[in-house]
Design goal:
The chain is built from five helices and no strands. It is flat and about 75 Å long. It comes from Spirosoma terrae.
């Protein structure tokens, strides 16, 4: 009886080990797939409070765009300028968002810069490499 119990525990441990391995494997695959869809927001520092990209316009955007809802709605979006305008008009029409006045083009610049279409002008290809460390090939004598 004691032995059976031990076997069961070992089998369970083995199973959990395999489950954990496959789980971490699939999440690896997923993160490498999304890596090709990176945007500028991935490579800049984030505001710890909202997760929004740190930028000279952060406070403006934070003040105007996180008053009613979580910044997550922005973080999960990737819109072109036209689509951002459309979203803002929709919020103004149906959600009582105020007229953004002179701030609007500044906010739009920020939104498109960091939360624009992830592929940008690169048509689904990865972004150009930023910091390449070249190394010298040693000739093998
Ligand atoms: C007056 C309140 C208010 C303000 C201010 C506001 N929003 Fe919204 N926004 C809303 C509401 C309400 C929704 C709908 C939320 C939901 O669906 O749960 C929304 C939804 C959104 C969505 C999701 C829309 C979609 O269809 O995916 C985005 C993105 C968004 N807002 C961005 C912004 C940005 C950027 C700003 C700053 C310019 C902003 N919001 C300011 C009220 C506001």
């Amino acid at each position: 009886m004691k032995n059976n119990c031990l076997m069961l525990v070992l089998a369970l441990a083995g199973f959990l080990g395999i489950a954990a391995q496959t789980a971490s494997h699939t999440s690896d695959a997923r993160s490498s797939r999304t890596a090709s869809a990176r945007s500028l927001a991935d490579s800049v520092k984030k505001d710890p409070e909202t997760g929004l990209a740190i930028d000279p316009q952060l406070m403006l955007v934070k003040g105007q765009c996180t008053a009613c809802h979580s910044s997550k709605l922005i973080l999960q979006s990737r819109f072109s300028r036209d689509k951002w305008i459309e979203r803002i008009r929709w919020m103004q029409r149906t959600q009582k968002l105020w007229d953004l006045g002179e701030s609007e083009p500044i906010i739009l610049d920020y939104l498109v810069k960091y939360y624009g279409p992830a592929t940008g002008s690169f048509d689904g290809r990865r972004e150009p490499l930023q910091s390449i460390k070249w190394y010298k090939l040693e000739s093998s004598r």
